[in-house]
Amino acid sequence: MRTLQPEHPAHREAVARGPAVCFTCYYDAVHTRGTCPECLQDRLLPGPRNADGQPTCATCAQIPYDFHCERCDVEAGHHRGRLCARCALRDDLHGLLGGPPGSPARVGLVDSLCASERPESIFVWKRSPKVQALLGGLGDGTVPMTHEGLDSVDNKQAEHLRALLQHHGHLPPRDPYLPRFERWIDAKLDGLPDEVRQPVQHFATWHHLRRIRAKAAAGASMRGPVHSAKQEITETVKFLVWLHESYQRTAATCTQQDVDEWLATGPTTRSAIRTFFVLAKKSRLNTKVTIQHRAAKTSRSLSQDQRLAWIHELLTGTSESLPYRIAGMLLLLYAQPLVRVVELQTSVIDDGDEGMTITLGKHATDVPEPFASLLREHLAARPNLRTGAGPDSPWLFPSIRAGRHLHPNTVMDRLRDLGVNLLGARNRAIGELVLECPPSLVADALGYSAQVAFLHASKAAEPWARYAGRRLSAP
Predict the structure, then answer these.
(1) This prediction's pTM
(2) What's the CA gap between 36 and 58, in Å, rounded?
(3) Is 67 buried (19+), middle (13-18) or exposed (0-12) by CB count in 10 A?
(4) Chain centre distance of CA 112
């Protein structure tokens, strides 16, 4: 390794008694804490490794340098003068905020940023002009430290701070999908002709937005409802624009023939206009059009050999990083949809003397080896815990944003890129499980409804409908 000429006094003195080291090795040395094997004290361990290969503290290594911060007295590598990285970062944040913050929320913001396990990452983050402008606005009051104030900025930097403030209790929790949906509606309606905009606006606000606001107030997650609403609104806009441009007709004058032509000449997603016309009939806007509910003719599924091949790949292969392999295994072994997988908390896993179990439904389910070993490895080194959220994140798959889990689309995209058919994998997994156990037990164990489990059992040609009777009549 090429050695670098040390510039920091601590670096020079730390290596004065031994060979020169590069900056990377020095950085690792002044960020290693633990129990010194010589004096058995919990300290910084910048010294060379002893005969057993364990690093030692500065005193036992006879390093003639005091690593204590002159302000907070914490033993750590010095970042600026004799200040540790956290104290230096606090000074920089005060400068960007226009001085030491006075309000509890701004004090909490600084404390949260300085609490990061790697404060050096915040130094890099705050170099961004957008971050500096945001912190300046929060400091002088032009950007209120509220959800509405951060909405007015509307960039990734503001969302990062919002997540951090919510995680540490300085802002009340808020579902992120509702405000984005409100802004999306405004953007979607912008520029549409009045003949299209008016019925779509009524549909989007009086049906979808009102329903989603009620669900959000009840504490439900809005990801699924917002996604469904966006699709229905988008398809309705496409249809009404086509109708207006092709036949100069509106939602009120639309005919059954228009709808049939639209549905027959495009993808199946066009059937999402059904909800619009159901409501149009109720409101007497258009009582002539009827669209039947569309049911999928087939359901995608992997073969059992394909499922087993993917299980083997995710258990033993290196085609993807460990968190995504774990998520894929939960899909392939336990038929868990990825929107539910990312919401799992570490508390669902119990690793006791008799083995590991995972609770996905009403009762715990065994976790077989070698998947249990992979889960232990993941739990011991979950990623994204060195942000402002700290190591206390409850999520099995923490996000880079404080207090949040990975977005399901992130996991879906990674597994799709591998070639995994997500819906096919889930259908095959639950299909195999209901062949081995009564559907009602599978439903309870995996968090499915009994109706869904029996539907998959019926498709697998083993309904178990007379399971109890067969048990009683068996010799």
Answers:
(1) 0.69
(2) 9
(3) buried
(4) 20
